[in-house]
Design goal:
Layout: H1 3-20, H2 22-51, E1 62-68, E2 74-75, H3 79-88, E3 92-107, E4 110-119, H4 123-127, E5 133-134, E6 149-152, H5 154-161, E7 171-174, E8 177-184, E9 198-201, E10 218-223, H6 229-246, H7 248-251, E11 255-260, H8 261-266, H9 270-301, H10 303-311, H11 316-352, H12 367-392, H13 397-401, H14 414-446, E12 457-463, H15 472-487, E13 492-498, E14 509-510, E15 513-514, E16 528-533, H16 537-541, E17 545-548, E18 561-565, H17 566-573, E19 582-585, E20 588-596, E21 611-615, E22 627-634, H18 642-652, E23 658-663, H19 664-671, H20 673-707, H21 709-717, H22 722-751, H23 767-793, H24 797-801
Parallel strand pairs: 4-9, 6-8, 16-21, 18-20
Antiparallel strand pairs: 1-2, 1-10, 1-11, 3-4, 3-10, 5-8, 6-9, 7-8, 12-22, 12-23, 13-22, 14-16, 15-19, 17-20, 18-21, 19-20
Helix pairs in contact: 1-2, 1-11, 2-9, 2-11, 2-12, 3-6, 9-12, 9-14, 9-20, 11-12, 14-20, 14-22, 14-23, 15-18, 20-23, 22-23
Length: 804
């Protein structure tokens, strides 16, 4: 008989055995489906986000360029530095700049907000992606007077223009001005974000052309063929040193940092994804040990069959091959069902990660994920089937055939079951400790004071078009009228506007000089964040006043003033009261009239930085305050104000849309959404691991009680009390649990250090977690052991003595 015939015979016989023990088969397939499906779902995300190349031409040559800050960290670039980078380098084919934008698009007789980006003319050449219709930008279209052109995203083209190819060449109204559509980008192009719907040429403002201290733009570049990342970094560092020598006041201690584009896009989610991938790996390992225990139990019922086959001449290798065939068939069935679990899991993950996960549109069951699932199923089948196959193939023929050979299994398999139970407990401990750390971290995060009161506050964003709001007076006039109208609404307690809401991001920053203090060494002063706010902003968010006063009415606030936070006083004045001090500005001194409490501006995990708030009515650059967020405090549920606030905005400017309508509670909630997601997912996997481990402990102890029924009967016949039997069984379970807990805690201490970047306010070796989790699992294990122990206590000695 050839190999193919033997293989087909093994498969047919294997299916018959699986069908014969179909109850056990169903449990095993379901267990494997959960483990394999969870792995496939997480791998599909890892594949799309971390492994799959970006959908651009030669993506390894595309990099992100950041200006390295003197105080540490990285930021955007100024216009003069960008131009010097582009002109002085020899390692890039193109370097392009861009900035995020929000545009008012006139569509279907209604204004709507369209997120987009302003980009330099060589932006699309960096990515090497042509337009699917029309063309991209050409040289010169990023100059003033030649920039009234726009490219549409595939999504916007289909939604607003019915996928009409004739849209190319048509004029559309953006921010009150006509723009000519020159192209439509393919659906795969979603840079700088997946929400980008249009691209316009970036024209650098005249006021920024010589401002090296104003860092406003993001930068990407395409390296020349053959240039490595290290070579590009070396040359850009040389250029940065040259600029530092030429412009020491602005460039002292500043450098350039280069990252491959894919690394820059996914670095913030990499630790979480790898942690989750490791977690589902542990879940699968636990599932495999459970199925291996099931196969050992089934082998006990097949000892006579195995003995007969051996007596008829079947060699050990032949038996091992048959058992592995059956286990692989089990795993393939589990993998097939696991794909359904994975498909459901992917939908659930994408729903949970809206706005968190980069490249989310690429996540799915593609060929690589299917191949991974198939390979995982095959490997899984061999892993959980090999040990039972090796153990079962050692069956003693004479022992198995005497007295029918159907009562129990070989005692030599007991150590294997015990080993599997220990492995399950250890893996469960690792996952439970990881989940416990994330839960503790999240609880700490929820107790962080944001510095304001988010209750009963409604927010929404407004982006005024340049064409109609060209002057500071026009911008200030619009917001003044809107806020007056909103403040007059019956349930409104305070209405204000700010250019950037808290817990979202830091904004513009720079160094400042306090009048009367010696200047800081060049480039060494602490960075101060700038915010533009209206008079009632602090009252609307209930940010406490620590010293001085809030802003006065616009008509009375004549001299330039600012309000600072406590971090400003600590960093620049050694904690002294800043009220009455002055900040030196190019146009003259600015008086500090108040100090407020610190606010977590860049999320709850980031400590407050020094900050200055400037009154919106004193802006000299209209662009600084065109995009603002309304902040409205209500006496009760703020969502009831949404329509009324919209009406007041439209009453001032009928063509002005609002967007991003959220309560401040939702803003705060979204700021910790990634931490919540990590905690929820790892907790789910840990709960699944605990359940499987509990089932594994129960099955091992139940089998041991069954196998030792004869011994228990003898002990009871000789005078042993039910309590003695209970102690015996629980003692055996506790020994296995203690070994598993010890190994699991050691593994957790080693592995949880890898997730330190995901924690907040909790160390990777948090004592409470490392003590509490083992105690929890020990209690669960004792409960799992108690049920078989209760059964052992009820054994009738006379029946037990006839058991064998």
């Amino acid at each position: 008989m050839g190999f193919i015939e033997k293989f087909v015979q093994d498969v047919r016989y294997g299916w018959r055995m699986l069908w014969k023990y179909r109850g056990m088969t169903a449990v095993a397939v379901l267990t494997l489906a959960l483990g394999i499906g969870a792995n496939a779902a997480i791998f599909s995300v890892v594949n799309a986000v971390l492994l799959r190349p970006l959908p651009y031409r030669e993506p390894d040559r595309i990099v992100y360029l950041f200006e390295r800050l003197p105080q540490g960290g990285e930021g955007s670039v100024s216009v003069p530095n960008f131009k010097d980078w582009r002109e002085q380098n020899t390692v890039f084919e193109q370097i392009a700049a861009f900035e995020y934008g929000n545009y008012n698009l006139q569509s279907r007789d209604q204004p709507e907000r369209a997120p987009g980006a302003a980009v330099t003319a060589d932006f699309f050449a960096v990515f090497g992606v042509p337009a699917q219709l029309g063309r991209t930008l050409v040289a010169g279209e990023d100059r003033a007077g030649h920039n009234r052109v726009v490219l549409l995203s595939d999504q916007l083209w289909r939604r607003n223009f019915g996928a009409d190819p004739a849209v190319v060449g048509r004029d559309i109204t953006i921010d009150g001005e006509n723009f000519s559509v020159v192209g439509v980008m393919p659906p795969s192009f979603q840079f700088p974000s997946r929400t980008t719907e249009l691209w316009t040429p970036l024209v650098f403002p005249e006021r920024l052309l010589n401002k090296r201290g104003q860092h406003n733009y993001q930068t990407v570049g395409r390296m020349k063929p053959g240039v490595t990342l290290a070579q590009a970094q070396e040359q850009m560092s040389t250029i940065a040193r040259r600029l530092e020598q030429q412009y020491p006041e602005d460039q002292a201690n500043r450098g350039v940092t280069i990252y491959q584009l894919q690394e820059a896009m996914v670095s913030y989610v990499r630790p979480a994804l790898l942690t989750l991938l490791g977690a589902v790996g542990f879940v699968l390992l636990i599932a495999c040990t459970n199925v291996a225990n099931l196969l050992l139990a089934r082998a006990a019922a097949r000892r006579r069959e195995i003995a007969i086959r051996t007596a008829l001449g079947a060699g050990r290798a032949r038996l091992i091959r048959q058992f592995l065939t059956e286990s692989v068939l089990l795993a393939l069935a589990g993998g097939a069902l696991g794909l359904l679990v994975a498909q459901w899991g992917i939908h659930a993950l994408l729903a949970l990660t809206v706005g968190i996960l980069p490249r989310a549109n690429e996540v799915g069951l593609d060929a690589r994920v299917l191949g991974f699932t198939l390979l995982l199923s095959l490997v899984t089948g061999i892993v959980f089937g090999l040990a039972p196959a090796l153990q079962t193939s050692k069956t003693d023929v004479r022992d198995a055939l005497k007295d029918g050979g159907t009562s129990g299994s070989s005692p030599r398999s007991n150590w294997l079951r015990s080993l599997f139970a220990v492995v399950e407990i250890a893996c469960a401990i690792v996952l439970l400790v990881g989940a416990g750390l994330l839960i503790r971290s999240f609880l700490r995060l929820q107790h962080v004071e944001p510095g304001f009161n988010p209750d009963n506050v409604l927010t929404m964003k407004i982006a005024l078009p340049d064409a109609r709001y060209k002057t500071p007076e026009a911008v200030v006039g619009f917001y003044t009228q809107v806020l007056e109208r909103i403040s007059a609404l019956p349930v409104v307690q305070a209405a204000a506007a700010v250019n950037m809401l808290p817990v979202q991001q830091y904004g513009t920053n720079g160094t400042v000089q306090i009048v009367g203090q010696p200047p800081d060494p060049q480039g060494q002063g602490p960075l101060v964040e700038y915010r533009i706010a209206t008079r009632d902003y602090f009252r609307a968010l209930e940010i406490p006043l620590v010293a001085g006063r809030f802003f006065d009415a616009p008509e009375r606030e004549r001299a330039p003033v600012v309000i600072v936070n406590q971090a400003f006083a600590r960093a620049l004045l050694n904690g002294a009261n800043p009220v009455g001090r002055q900040i030196q500005d190019d146009d003259g001194p600015i008086e500090i009239v108040g100090m407020v409490g610190d606010v977590r501006q860049s999320g709850l995990t980031t400590a407050p930085r020094p900050e200055m708030f400037m009154p919106y009515n004193q802006i000299t650059n209209p662009g600084a305050a065109r995009t603002m967020s309304l902040v409205v405090r209500a006496a009760s549920d703020p969502t009831t104000l949404t329509d009324a606030v919209r009406r007041e905005v439209v009453a001032v400017d009928p063509a002005q849309p609002v967007y991003g309508v959220l309560t401040m509670g939702q803003v705060l909630d979204r700021s910790i959404s990634s931490e919540r997601l990590n905690m929820v997912l790892l907790s789910l996997f840990a709960a699944l691991a605990l359940t499987l481990a509990t089932i594994g402990i129960y099955s091992v102890m139940s089998f041991l009680v069954t196998q030792h029924t004869h011994e228990i009967g003898i002990r009871m016949a000789l005078g042993a009390q039910p309590g003695d039997i209970l102690k015996l069984v629980l003692g055996q379970g506790l020994v296995l649990t203690a070994i598993g807990v010890g190994l699991g805690v050691a593994g957790a201490i080693a592995l949880t250090r890898l997730m330190a970047s995901l924690l907040f306010g909790v160390g990777a070796t948090d004592p409470l977690t490392l003590v509490g989790v083992p105690l929890l699992l020990t209690c669960v294990a004792l409960l799992a052991c108690y049920i078989p122990a209760r059964r052992a206590m009820k054994v009738d000695p006379m029946v037990a003595l006839r058991f064998e």
